[in-house]
Each structure stands twice: as structure tokens, then as C-alpha cells.
Amino acid sequence: MTSTPQRLDAATLGKIVFARFLEQPLATLERQVATLEASPAYADLCSTLECGILPGARLTEQPRPGSVLALGEVCLDSPTPALLYQRASFVREYRFDSSALEAHLRSRAPAGALSSAIHRMKLINSRNRLTHALVHELVALQSRFLYTRDPLDLIPMTQAELAQRLNRRANLSLRADAGRLSRLLKHLSLRNADGVLLPLSTLLARSRQVHGHWIDHLLKQEKQWLLNGQIRAPLPDQALAEHLAAHHGIRLGRRTVATIRQQLAIPDWRERKLRKSYLAVTEGFSPLLLLSRQALSALIPAQPGVYEIRASSETSLSGGPALTLPSTVLYIGSSGNLRKRLWNHQRGNTGNPELLRYLAEFPVRVRFRVVGSDWRSLERELYRVHCETFGAPPPCNRMSP
To answer: How far apart (Å, rounded) are the C-alpha atoms in residues 168 and 176?
Structure first.
């Protein structure tokens, strides 16, 4: 006996359609708005609606060109940050005259094309209203961080907590929930006044992420304390936890500190004591970034500099046993264009089969330092100090630079 497939009710189907609509990139949304407003159905409905932008929304006068389309630009010229949207379609709102629309639809039979256009306009309204409320809540919440760009100024907030704030404060015609916010955040970015792209998810930092910034900050301070003679050896995890509680009011257990430290690819205090020289020469490097297309497009500059590619702490190739490496650094390099060189590494276009094996088998991370000139000399210095500190070169550097 075969079972009859259960049909979805209209409410459930509507939620699924809206969820998928939230996941569309900004470029797709822009095309859909343009296609809709050029359609005969839209022209037929113009007498029943008013087309404008969301109340309180402002558009930038000179949209910035760029390969990655941003939602808008954060303006920091006043005491509070202001958001200027890059396209009118991102804040498009269709306001219907209900009685006129109802009479118009009765005079059109069948009204399939008109109903489809109305449904599309309602989807655009709902998405843009939710996006507008989400962005303005995050910009207000993280205003201090937007001015300082110091990750220590980030206020931790989960998607569920943000959804609760939106439902309490924003005048939304639909309910915000963590799932809807997650779908929206996937493709939304802002630009600062310098044109640097800021993924919107950066402003929604979990407590663990913020704690990671604090531990990273404390371990950078540790290097200075060692140089100044304020401490005689690197701090164990328990001492790090006690310092965070005493000086910053952040209460973490020793095991939590150890877990976060490992996620930051920072060795324990014994290894840091041995590797102090290499840590010193890599001062000023960026945080570790997953070598992904998103990081290459948004976070790695097209400027000259040096970089290192790292493996995870326990790495194995093709399901074999974990490799014993003197350090997690796989490769040290330099380039006149960091983004282009790392793109080539990811695509396997650098003629380095050993590094390509690592890239193909598991995720790797990269960190870099922008250098205005003489980056080749700094690359040679990094290579030399790595060899002196760990007793061997990085495994994917086939020869000395």
C-alpha cells in the first residue's frame, strides 16, 4: 500500500518561500526588483500602490564600485553612526491602497499575473523591512566598535537574543527569529568610510568570539611584559583566567581559556617559552583567517606583504596518522599582491605540489602583514627565524627564499 504524499498547508509553504527569498544575494534582489518594476503586471497595478523607500532609510549619493556588492556604507561623521544604503532596491517598499487594489483585482479576470506580482512585492517588503530593522539594531549596538574597530569593544549577542530585541523594539509586520536572521546575515556586508568591506556577521559576535579577542589581546600584552621584564615566563592558562577576571571582569575557567587559545592557534606557555623568537618576528600579523573565497574577497588586501599558511594542530593526509611537524606553519611567502598570490595558492596555480596536497585535504588558515616595501627581505627573515626556532623550515617551502 503506497502512502499519499502529505501536502503542505499554505502557511508552511509561505514560510519556506520566504526563507529561501531571504537567502538570495543582494545582486539577485536588485535584479528581481528591476524585473518586477519593468513588468506589464506592475504597470497595471501602479494606480493601486505607492512605490518608495522605507521610512528613515537614506541612500548614498555616490555608490562605491566594487566586485562585492555591499548593503550600504557606514558614515562616522557624526556622534552616532549612520547607514547610507547603496541601492534603492535594498530599501524598496510598496504601499498598497487596499480598497483600490481589491476593486482593481475584481475587474481583472483571471488575475494570475497580478497576484504573482503582488506576492513578489510583499516578499520584497518583508525582506527589506526585516533587513532595515536588523542592520539599524546592530549598528546602534556596536557603534563603539564601528568607531574604534577594536574587537575588544564588541558587545556579545546571539541571533536568538537579537531576534528578541527586534520583536520588542522594531515595528515589524512579521516575527523575527534566529533562523530568518541567519539566512539574511549570510550575504550582507557593509563598507566603512575607507571602503573596507565588513561582513554584517562581524557585528553579531558570540561570547566565545569576544572572549577569544580578549585572550588574544592578553597574550599580545604578555610578549611586551616579557620584553620589559615584568614577567619571567609566559602565563599558564590558569594565570590567564585569573588576570581576565581580576582586571576585566571576564570569568572563564582554565579549560575554557585553553580551548579558546587552541582555537586561536596559540601554543601553551611551555611552547611559547621556546618559540618566543618566532613570535616576536611575527608581531603585527593579522589574526588567523580560514583560506576561503570569502576571506580572500573581503579580508585580504591586494597589497604587498608577507604571509604564512598554517595547518591545524593535528593534521593527517589521506586518512593517515597525524603528522609530526615542528610547527603548524606550512609555508612562508611574500608577494606584491597578497590577495592575488593567495588566490593562486587556493587554485593550485603556484607550482607547489606539496602545499597543494595540504590545501586539497583539509582547511588551512592564513595570516599576513602588509609591508610597504622590501617584503622579500622580511620573508627571508621570517624563514630564517622559523628555522632557528623550530629546527626545520616549513614543510612546503621547497627552498630558502
So the answer is: 10
Identify the helix (H) or strand (E) that includes residue 169.
Answer: helix 159-169
Tell me whether residue 155 is exposed, middle or buried, using C-beta atoms within 10 angstroms of its C-beta: 0 to 12, 13 to 18, 19 or more.
Answer: middle
Task: Indicate if the pLDDT at residue 2 is higher than 60.
Answer: no
Residue 382 one-letter amino acid: L
Note the pLDDT of residue 326: 53
| Sign of CA pseudo-dihedral 313, 334, 282, 142 | negative
- Whether pLDDT at 332 is above 90: yes
Phi, psi (degrees; rounded to nearest 5) at 174: -130, 165
CA–centroid distance for 117 within its chain: 33
Q: Contact, 237 vs 187, CB < 8 A?
A: no
CA distance 361 to 177: 36
Bridge-based pairing of strands 197-199 and 92-96 is: unpaired
SS3 201: helix
pLDDT grade, residue 322 (50/70/90)? Answer: very low
Residue 177, classed as helix, strand or coil, is: coil
Q: Computed over its alpha carbons, how large is the radius of gyration of the chain?
A: 26
49-72: pLDDT as tens digits: 999 999 999 998 776 665 568 999
Contact 262, 313 (CB under 8 A): yes
**Which three-class secondary structure state does DSSP give residue 39?**
coil
Give this prediction's pTM. 0.66
Cα separation, 163 vs 179, in Å, equals 9
Label residue 73 by pLDDT band (50, 70, 90): very high
